[in-house]
Specification:
Elements lengths: L1 E11 L7 H17 L7 E4 L6 H6 L3 H4 L4 H11 L1 H11 L3 H28 L2 E3 L3 E3 L18 E7 L5 E6 L24 E4 L2 E5 L12 H7 L4 E3 L2 E2 L6 H7 L3 H7 L5 E4 L1 E6 L2 E3 L4 E4 L20 E4 L7 E8 L5
Parallel strand pairs: 1-2, 1-12, 2-3, 8-9, 9-11, 10-12
Antiparallel strand pairs: 1-16, 3-5, 4-5, 5-6, 7-8, 11-14, 12-13, 14-15
């Protein structure tokens, strides 16, 4: 039995979120491109990059927000648009303005994000890791944790099945600076909530970007302990794709799969392009543990080939679709 792994390297811009319809059409266009290269007979996993859900936030905001020159200016303009509900959340929950704004946007943001990716998964009959979005648990159609903090907004990745059903979520544990109190003011996910999702393709584990690195986060260790066979690492790297960065990136999915042998496969879709004043770079990759499948002719641009790479994006600022057809992780 063989399966199909697809990583979508998306090049985004604020215009991709100019409306809910534009957001859905943009992602549908990427799915059409991906499925045109796919074998419809094989069980298929498609993964989008981290933070794609920020475009869903833009989609429920007025055009004046999209025209701002910086992320800080865009958030300030969005806050003016949502001042009363944001103020209510700020006073009620005693949180900062960034989190108050995200809480005010949740009902519409979550609906656009969830509905769009559910429809994509169902239309194309695939298992779909929907990148990630800033989501509060209360707005997800899943049982809320008992100790849920109603003020917490997490960088949350969602997994959908071929029927469009939400199968589960993974909240990012290790946050970077722009996700912290001085930026989006997101909350780190609880490590104990990390879980693996059984599917016909194998047991899927999701580690959002930095969560796939060690020792920054214990996430990949917990996924391996729970028997994950395919690691999905949706990523968005807000910095130049230098040789040093490429070398550092080997500590993520590649190390977990090839050097440590924890997983049979890894899927690492990366975001590229510019969102306001933030530029994102990276080379998406599909990775295999078995050296017979990926003997070492591919690698990141500046640091040379490495064993384990099934496919690597050609550019670090491009939009590309990576696809690999491989044996089921339980075969043999």
């Amino acid at each position: 039995m063989r399966i199909q792994l697809i990583a979508i390297q998306m090049r985004w811009s604020p215009s991709d979120g100019r409306s809910p319809e534009a957001f859905a059409a943009r992602l549908e266009g990427l799915m059409v491109r991906a499925m045109a290269q796919a074998d419809p007979r094989l069980p298929t996993l498609v993964a989008f990059p981290e933070d794609v859900g920020l475009l869903a936030a833009l989609a429920v905001l007025p055009p004046a927000v999209h025209a701002q020159p910086t992320m800080a200016a865009a958030m300030a303009r969005a806050l003016r648009h949502c001042l009363l509900p944001a103020l209510w959340n700020r006073l009620r929950h005693r949180v900062g303005w960034a989190r108050a704004l995200l809480l005010a946007l949740q009902p519409r943001l979550a609906r656009v994000y969830l509905d769009t990716f559910s429809a994509l998964a169902a239309h194309h009959r695939v298992y779909l890791v929907a990148g990630s979005a800033p989501l509060a648990d209360a707005f997800l159609p899943l049982p809320a944790p008992r100790d849920q903090d109603p003020t917490a907004v997490h960088n949350t990745a969602c997994l959908f099945g071929p029927d469009g059903m939400l199968l589960g979520i993974q909240r990012k544990v290790a946050l970077i600076d722009i996700e912290g109190p001085a930026g989006l003011d997101l909350a780190p996910g609880p490590v104990e909530a990390i879980q693996v999702f059984p599917t016909p393709l194998g047991r899927l584990g999701i580690a959002v970007c930095l969560d796939a690195f060690a020792p920054e986060s214990p996430v990949r260790e917990r996924l391996a302990q729970q028997g994950a066979e395919i690691l999905v690492q949706p990523s968005a790297n807000p910095g130049p794709w230098t040789p040093e960065q490429q070398q550092d990136w080997l500590r993520g999915s590649w190390a977990a799969t090839v050097a440590e042998g924890r997983f049979a496969y890894a899927v690492n879709p990366m975001m590229t392009g510019t969102l306001f004043d933030l530029a994102f770079y990276g080379q998406s990759a599909l990775i295999a543990r078995d050296p017979a499948l990926a003997p070492g002719s591919l690698g990141y641009r500046d640091i040379g080939p490495r064993p384990g790479f099934l496919a690597v994006a050609q550019g670090d600022a491009t939009e590309e679709i990576l696809i690999a057809r491989v044996p089921h992780p339980q075969v043999g």
